[in-house]
Amino acid sequence: MNFFKDRDCVTIVRPTEEEKDLQSLQSINNERLRPEFVMQMALLRQRIMKRVKPKVFNGKSITGEMLLELC
């Protein structure tokens, strides 16, 4: 439980009504997605970015380079 102390849950609408589009969401333009979904995802991204805190190791914020070195 130390890794995810702050948890949250969000309900969003189905991205599209087309079943074939659901199979390839990563390659679909936002114009083909439901406007409600696009708006909800934008709000969720904003919410996440406001809450995210840098990871710290030995008192230092971890950069991408440091993470690679640790791995």
Task: Explain how this protein is built.
By secondary structure, the chain is mostly helical. It has one domain (19-70). Helices cover 39% and strands 6% of the residues. The protein has helices at residues 19-22, 35-51, 64-70; strands at 56-57, 60-61. A two-stranded antiparallel ribbon has the order 1-2. The radius of gyration is 17 Å and the shape is elongated. The relative contact order is 0.12.
| Number of spatially distinct domains | 1
Order of helices and strands: HHEEH
DSSP helix fraction: 25-40%
Strand order of the largest sheet: 1-2
Major sheet: size, sense and barrel closure? 2 strands, antiparallel
Helix vs. strand class: mainly alpha
Into which percentage range does the β-strand content fall? 5-15%
Please report the total strand number as a whole number: 2
Overall geometry: elongated
List the total number of helices: 3
Return the average pLDDT rounded to an integer: 89
Sequence stretches where pLDDT stays below 50 over 5 or more residues: none
End-to-end distance, in Å? 22 Å
Radius of gyration: 17 Å
